[in-house]
Write a structure and sequence with these properties.
With about 350 residues, this protein is α/β, with parallel strands linked by helices. It has one domain: Alpha-Beta Barrel (TIM Barrel), CATH 3.20.20. It is about 40% helix and about 10% strand. Strand 7, helix 12 and strand 8 form a beta-alpha-beta unit. Helix 6 runs parallel beside helix 7, helix 11 runs parallel beside helix 12 and helix 12 runs parallel beside helix 13. The longest helix has 21 residues. The protein is globular. The termini are far apart. The structure holds beta-D-glucopyranose (BGC). The site of beta-D-glucopyranose has 5 residues, from loops.
Length: about 350
């Protein structure tokens, strides 16, 4: 070894020594928003506790269930979640029409950009401490022809379940909004498809809370046809409530021409009117008790064409009656046609807010 190369080696060794003894720098970079906050549970959770945790919440309707967000009347803004949480609400249900954002033939891939948008919305809600119930909405093809399109639903859930498998327990899944159409004459088709979708979900989400409701638009009267997989304890049964329909859907453009003739229908909470509501809720409770399942009212609301006072009295009565029966709920919906929040005025509609959150 020449003197020059020995000198070079010495330099290399010295460099190594200095590098290894370097202290870590003092500036520790904390990720701005560590995501996900917490991995999901590796133990079964108590479905009754998780159902109760939904508490009082909102459907973020008329947004992500449109073919293009905004076409349904609403684009979800990040600050809505703070407004909702600050008013004391604890959950949101997120209607999403996945089938409008996926391939219509196998392998039914969901658009990456759409997933990113849904991710963002879910994360904003979770950051504000809200439970999120993520559903599959407006799957018209499936309701019209379940046998032809069931593979599409399974493929969607395979992807959704994989995509969100590391999300915290506060993200719940709901397999299908309001099964209807051909399912109504074949409730067994719905039961077997729901079980199949659940099995796909369970591969990577063994204990994630999953919501399932009956045919006939999640009607209480159809709860007896619903068969939930017995061994799965991470399930919450759901139903929707819009009775009397002539009152809640008066003037609703999507409820047919007849709905125009219902305009002016009032609901003042007479004894008969109240009994009609509680008799239905009691039916739901009886079914749930027999099945040993928690109950969640996923949608209820009265369209804004009804008079404000009737809307207040009905909404207050349904919400309180559900709560008395330990049924958590999400009102239909936050900021559009049934809206509790006036997005133009940037203010809550005081009567609807008070009906949903007494003292609010
Ligand atoms: C539907 C909405 C409708 C609401 C009340 C929801 O399940 O997706 O389009 O406005 O029910 O009828």
């Amino acid at each position: 070894m020449t003197a020059a190369s020995r000198y070079l080696w010495l330099l290399v060794l010295l460099g190594l020594f200095i590098h290894c003894s370097e202290k870590p720098t003092e500036t520790i970079v904390v990720p701005e928003e560590k995501w996900p906050f917490r991995p999901p549970s590796t133990q079964p959770l108590d479905a009754f506790v998780m159902s109760a945790a939904i508490g009082r919440g909102f459907n973020l309707g008329n947004a992500l269930e449109a073919a293009v967000e905004g076409e349904g009347g609403m684009v979800i803004q990040d600050h809505y979640f703070k407004i909702i949480a600050d008013a004391g609400f604890t959950s949101i249900r997120l209607p999403v029409t996945w089938s409008a954002h996926s391939m219509t033939v196998p392998p039914f891939y969901i658009e990456a950009a759409f997933f990113e948008r849904v991710d963002h919305v879910i994360q904003e809600a979770l950051k504000n401490g809200l439970i999120v119930i993520l559903n599959d909405h407006h799957f018209d093809e499936l309701n019209a022809d379940p046998q032809a399109y069931k593979g599409w639903l399974i493929a969607l859930w395979e992807q959704i379940a994989r995509h969100y498998k590391d999300y915290p327990d506060e993200l719940y899944f709901e397999i299908l909004n309001e099964p209807h159409g051909e399912f109504n004459t074949h409730p067994e088709w719905w039961n077997s498809l729901a079980a199949e979708a659940l099995a796909v979900i369970r591969n990577l989400n063994p204990y994630r809370m999953t919501v399932i409701g009956p045919i006939n638009w999640n009607s209480i009267n159809s709860l007896p046809t619903l068969e939930l997989p017995k061994e799965d304890q991470s399930l919450i049964a759901t139903f929707h409530f819009y009775d009397p329909f002539q009152f809640t859907h008066q003037g609703a453009e999507w409820a047919g021409e007849e709905a125009q003739s219902w305009l002016g229908t009032k609901w003042s909470g007479t004894l008969d009117q109240r009994n009609a509501v509680t008799a239905q809720l009691d039916k739901a409770v009886k079914w749930a008790e027999e099945q040993g399942r928690p109950l969640y009212l996923g949608e209820f609301g009265a369209y804004s064409k009804a008079d404000d006072n009737s809307r207040y009295v009905w909404t207050d009565f349904v919400a309180r009656s559900a709560e008395k029966r330990h049924i958590s709920w999400t009102y239909w919906e936050f900021g559009a046609g049934f809206g509790a929040y006036d997005r133009e005025a940037r203010a809550w509609r005081p009567l609807i807010l008070r009906a949903l959150m007494p003292g609010g």
